[in-house]
Design a protein that fits this description.
The protein is of the alpha/beta class and 260 residues long. 37% of the residues lie in helices and 18% in strands. The strands form two sheets. Strands 1, 2, 3, 4, 5, 8, 9 and 10 form an eight-stranded mixed β-sheet that branches. It has a two-stranded antiparallel ribbon with strand order 6-7.
């Protein structure tokens, strides 16, 4: 049974969020009109490597089959241009690709944003932990407690270092936010969206003509067991294999859908 406190909190903090099962169905309904079907669509995701984010991939897989994974810490597409090009070469003849990307945030059973109950744990734990660590790093830089990092030179914790560096540009935004924990995934999405579109622009020509690229980006909202996860859609675009915007499909993800 769903926890009404969690549902109310998700909808209050992230207006416009929808259940991830509904998201998958709406994406499919919009794209089938564009010729995207299971046999001709290569699904790719860039979601966090955290195990709690896998449900959305399973729901999308019900429509499109197995997915190609581009994501790493905080959901950033650390596979980069090389992973996009590799994915594009997997697109069926005459087909298209769908890329779904998002940072995540948890809401626990008490309605606390930035926390989640995990199986086998007695207390709520941070979600997304690496995003929170990046925010802590940003706060220390702003307080002059640590220096602004230079280029990453070691692979040992390169992704975490990179997430923190990307988030620095949003330090004042987070500092001034009424609820920094709720604002954090929104700031991370802005970083991720810019990064993803640079990757698409750099690798788009690997998509065989007349193939198209559907991009769905937003915030993945992780909830306690028994309550459906949510997703706040931020972008739903259709681009050609020159990365040129062909159509904005966001209206298909509104709940309720916009009237035509």
């Amino acid at each position: 049974m769903e926890n009404p406190k969690v549902v109310a909190k998700a909808q209050a903090v992230y207006p416009g969020c929808i259940r991830t099962g509904d998201l998958a169905a709406k994406i499919h309904a919009a794209l089938v009109r564009q010729g995207f079907d299971k046999d001709s669509t290569q699904l790719a995701t860039s979601l966090s490597c955290d195990e709690v984010t896998r449900e959305l991939e399973r729901q999308l897989g019900g429509y499109y089959g197995d997915h190609f994974s581009m994501g790493g810490l905080a959901g950033f597409p650390f596979g980069g241009v090389s992973s996009f090009k590799a994915m594009a070469r997997h697109i069926p003849v005459g087909g298209n690709c769908l890329i779904v990307y998002a940072p995540q945030v948890g809401i626990d059973s008490k309605g606390e944003v930035g926390k989640i109950e995990r199986v086998g744990k007695t207390e709520s734990s941070p979600c997304c932990e690496c995003s929170i660590a990046a925010h802590e790093f940003v706060k220390k830089v702003m307080a002059n407690e640590v220096e602004t990092p230079g280029p990453v030179t070691s692979p040992l914790d390169a992704q975490q270092t990179w997430v923190g560096s990307m988030l620095l540009r949003h330090g004042i935004r987070l500092q001034q936010a009424a609820d920094p924990s709720a604002e954090l995934p929104l700031a991370l999405f802005d970083c991720m969206d810019e990064f993803m579109k640079k990757i698409v622009k750099a690798g788009c020509n690997e998509v065989p003509s007349p193939g198209r690229i559907a991009l769905v980006g937003g915030i993945q909202i992780i909830t306690p067991p028994g309550t459906a996860d949510f997703f706040l859609p931020m972008t739903f675009e259709l681009r050609n294999n020159n990365a040129e915007l062909q159509e904005n499909l966001m209206d298909f993800l509104l709940d309720p859908p916009a009237m035509s």
